[in-house]
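User: structure tokens for this one?
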Amino acid sequence: MKRARQAEILKIIQSVDVETQEQLLDELKSRGFASTQATISRDIKELRLVKEMSGGGYRYVVSERKGMVDSDVRLRNIFKEGVVSVDLAQNIVVVRTMPGLASAACSALDSMDIPGMVGSLAGDDTGILIMRDNASAEQFNREVHKLLK
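Assistant:
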């Protein structure tokens, strides 16, 4: 239900200039989603929505830049601290870490909503990231190697 509600929130803010949480609640209700102000507030935080100036007022939008900066900083810190190597095997990215750190690295990567990533599996010092296709794996592998330089 949460994913469906959050997906609907993203659709709403793309099609309607939403200025307040109350307006967002009304829009959700009109589309069949019952919710509370507290839930909407959490959704706004998780989706990284911010208000930006629009005409004479403000509206909610997705903060692309902040999300990219946060993910980049988190990923860079993870890799600096414990990743030994990253390699590619078709649609699978293999992440080798210091002993005991693969689970933490994969958990952090899982939480980042990496495009094309289906999931991960971690052992003691090796994690695998299952990507949707070879192109997604190659793109992620390139980005990681840039971070490691």
